[in-house]
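Thread: 2'-deoxycytidine-5'-monophosphate complex, take 2
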Amino acid sequence: MHNLIPSAVPVIAIDGPSASGKGTVAELVATQLGFHYLDSGALYRIVALAAKQQNIDWDNAFAVAECAKTLSIEFKNSQVFLNGADISEAIRTEEMGKGASRVAVHAPVRAVLVNLQHSFRTAPGLVADGRDMGTVIFPDAALKVFLTAATEVRAQRRYQQLINKKQTNDDLKVSYDDILQDLRERDARDQARASAPLIKANDAILLETDHLGIAQAVAHVMQNYQLIRNF
Ligand code: DC
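Output below.
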C-alpha cells in the first residue's frame, strides 16, 4: 500500500549562510528531480518588505508577527506576489536582505511562517533552502546539506551579482567593502539568535564551495541523493 501521509514526501534541505550559492543549487536540484522548490529566505524578505510598507519597526517582534499573519503570499513560476502585487525584485535588494535577517530573529515571526513552509512539502518531493530547513522546519529531511564558503568569497560573488544586475541606484552605490561588512553582520545575527540559529545539522553533509562551481555543487548533491534513494 502506498504511504500517502505528507511526511512520506522526500525533502532535500539545503542550508547555509548568505550568498553561499544555496538558492541556485537548490533550484537546479529541484529542476533535475522534478521536485518543488522552497526559497524560505524569500518569506523573511517579504515580511521585512511588508513591515517597511506599513512603517513597522523591524525590531518590534509583536508588531512584525501580527503583520506577517495578515500576508497573502503566492509563488508563481519564479515570481513572488504579496497581496496580489509582484514584489519579486523589491525583495531582492540588500536592504531587504538585512531586514529579513532582522525580522527573522523574532521567534513569534518564525512561528507564523512554519505552516506555510510545511505546505510546500507535496509530491513528488521538495528542495528547501534557508537557515533552519534541516534543523527545525524539516528535521526528517531525506538529505541535509550545509553549503558554505569563506565570507570573502561570498562577498565577491554577491558583489559580482549586483554589478551584473545594476538594477537600482542603491545597487550601483554598493561597494565590495559594504557587502563584506553586511555579510559579516548578517552571518553574526543569523548565527547568534536564540530561535533557529544558522547552524549545520549534525546529520548534514558539509559542502564547501570556495573552489567549487555551481554545476559541481549540484552534482555533489545529486550523487548524495541518489545514494540515499538506492539504499
Ligand atoms: O537566504 P536569504 O539571504 O534570502 O535570507 C535572508 C534572511 O532571512 C537571512 O539573513 C536570515 C533569514 N532567514 C532565516 O532566518 N531562516 C531561513 N530559513 C531563511 C532565511
